[in-house]
Each structure stands twice: as structure tokens, then as C-alpha cells.
Design goal:
By secondary structure, the chain is mostly helical. The protein has one domain. Helices cover 82% and strands 0% of the residues. The radius of gyration is 25 Å and the shape is rod-shaped.
């Protein structure tokens, strides 16, 4: 009976650890996407560049 409780506790700990690993992986992926999206595609040096693109 006591071994069952120990095994159950180990299963709970293992599932908690795997959940934490998944959360860390998801957080890292989201952070990577945010950093990639935050970079501008080009740097606008003057308004003239923008006006030329709009014409």
C-alpha cells in the first residue's frame, strides 16, 4: 500500500516536471517570435523615402 503511494507521488512529480519543460519550451518559442516580429523590415532614414514609396 505504501509503495503505491510512493509510486503515485513519483508519477505526479514526473508529470509536473514534464509540464514545466513544455511551458519553458513554449515560453522560449513565444519569446523568439516576439523578438523576430519586433525588428523592423527596414529603417526609414527620411520622410522622402516614404514619399517615394507611396507614389
Amino acid at each position: 500500500m505504501q509503495m503505491d503511494a510512493v509510486e503515485r507521488a513519483r508519477e505526479i512529480i514526473a508529470s509536473g516536471q514534464s509540464l514545466r519543460e513544455k511551458q519553458l519550451a513554449n515560453r522560449a518559442e513565444i519569446q523568439r517570435k516576439v523578438e523576430a516580429a519586433a525588428k523592423p523590415l527596414y529603417v526609414l532614414k527620411s520622410k522622402k523615402q516614404l514619399e517615394l514609396r507611396l507614389q
